[in-house]
Design goal:
- This is triacylglycerol lipase.
- It is found in: Secreted.
- Keywords: Hydrolase, Lipid degradation, Lipid metabolism, Secreted, Signal.
- Its EC number is 3.1.1.3.
- There is one protein chain.
- By secondary structure, the chain is an alpha/beta fold.
- It is built from 12 helices and 11 strands.
- Helix 2 (68-80) packs across helix 4.
- It is globular.
Length: 398
């Protein structure tokens, strides 16, 4: 089945050539991990395919279970180059190290001025799942910085990401099946790292090695760096049993909760100079017996238990985000109603004329589960990503 949406580029000729950076979701990994099995495409390399069709594309690799703040500052360092600075105030508040890894930069001239055009070297960001939240946080920090960091840090030690000098370096943001308003799945604590061992085993099987899957949680700031020759199972258990999950909100678990997402949405806003796009997905239908949403027969069996949970969960109560039947349709991991954009931002249906500062919803991918959209299911998604690239390159460079 072909994807049910067509981005409808407004111009067959590219109007910009800004690079595209792919940002993975929860439990995702980089190009150098999983012995070559790609998060974006599996054995079908979406980044490579995009490049072969003229779209300059890079794949980021940020903390797979880290908070959106930590992931955003890691993403900044990875793209621009330099040492990760989580911030003096942030690191003290949450009790982890201020500095992280150092990166050479995927696109070091990002944010500089093109001497030939006098325009800023910008980028497009595509985020899947949690990645959609992460790229929003990065854009918010670029636009307004952080007042707490400015108060806590001497000016000569302050990361440029926090200084509050507006940096219009992101041209567009495109989220794919992102839980902008959170996912009730996080209430099942054991699903924090959903079926990770099975996913890693699947990836290792596809690449021919189960003993050394080369997976990195990137939690150095918490003292959870993988040790030399440490078996993955032992590393996984050390991370999973860490007190981090019980004592801190500086995690993906909190940001993905509806309450955490609401807290994030209170300070992360759509910026007027950025194009925003979103893609939703679903693979459930309404049961005539219960009225709940249940998995379609062809949904990946990996997601059946989580889909049933999302398709029937409700909650009310003080301090809780109300969840009712409007949330039940899902893709196995995320509520479809959460995917079109944050409830606090304006959302419109895309009509071939993209607007800045609002979420241009590209539509719902029907009968697609959460990993189908990144090419980890049975579908080849490369042509669809080319169409997304064509859409982003059709946007005015201004």
């Amino acid at each position: 089945m072909k994807p049910s949406i067509n981005p409808h580029p407004t111009n067959d000729e590219a109007r910009n050539h800004y690079p595209i950076v792919l940002v993975h979701g929860l439990t995702g990994w980089g190009r150098d991990e999983m012995l070559g099995f790609k998060y974006w495409g599996g054995i079908q390399d979406i980044e490579k395919d995009m490049k072969s069709h003229g779209y300059e594309t890079y794949t980021a690799a940020v903390g797979p279970v880290s908070s959106n703040w930590d992931r955003a500052v890691e993403l900044y360092a990875q793209i621009k180059g330099g040492r990760v600075d989580y911030g003096e105030a942030h690191s003290k508040k949450h009790g982890h190290a201020r500095y992280g890894r150092t990166y050479p930069g995927l696109y070091p001239k990002w944010g500089e001025i093109n001497p030939e055009t006098s325009m800023i070297y910008k980028i497009h960001l595509i985020g899947h799942s949690l990645g959609g939240q992460t790229i929003r946080v990065l854009n918010q920090l670029l636009a307004q910085g952080d007042e707490n960091e400015r108060h806590a840090t001497p000016k000569d030690e302050l990361s440029p990401l926090f200084n509050g000098e507006n940096k219009p370096w992101i041209h567009s943001i495109l989220s794919i099946a992102s839980p902008h308003d959170g996912s009730a799945l996080t209430y099942k604590v054991k699903e924090l790292i959903p079926h990770l061992q099975q996913i890693v085993t699947l990836a290792a099987s596809a690449t021919g090695s189960k003993d050394n899957p080369m997976y990195d949680f990137k939690l150095d700031q918490w003292g959870l760096k993988r040790l030399p020759n440490e078996p993955f199972d032992r590393y996984y258990q050390r991370v999973r049993n860490s007190s981090l999950w019980k004592t801190s909100k500086d995690t993906a678990e909190w940001d993905l909760k509806p309450e955490g997402a609401k807290e994030l949405n209170d300070w992360v806003k759509a910026q007027p100079n950025v194009y925003y796009f979103s893609v939703s997905a679903e693979q459930t239908y309404k049961s005539i017996l219960t009225g709940h949403q249940i998995p379609e027969p062809l949904m990946n069996p990996l997601f059946h238990p989580t889909s049933y949970f999302l398709g029937s969960y409700t909650q009310i109560g003080q301090g809780k985000v109300p969840i009712n039947s409007a949330w039940w349709r899902n893709d196995g991991m995320v509520h479809t109603s959460s995917m079109d954009g944050p409830a606090t931002d304006p959302i419109v249906s895309y009509n071939k004329d993209a607007q800045k500062g609002v979420w241009n919803h590209l539509g719902i991918m029907r009968s697609y589960d959460h990993i189908d959209l990144i090419g980890l299911g049975v579908r080849d998604m490369r042509a669809w990503y080319r169409a997304l690239g064509k859409l982003l390159y059709s946007l005015s460079a201004q």
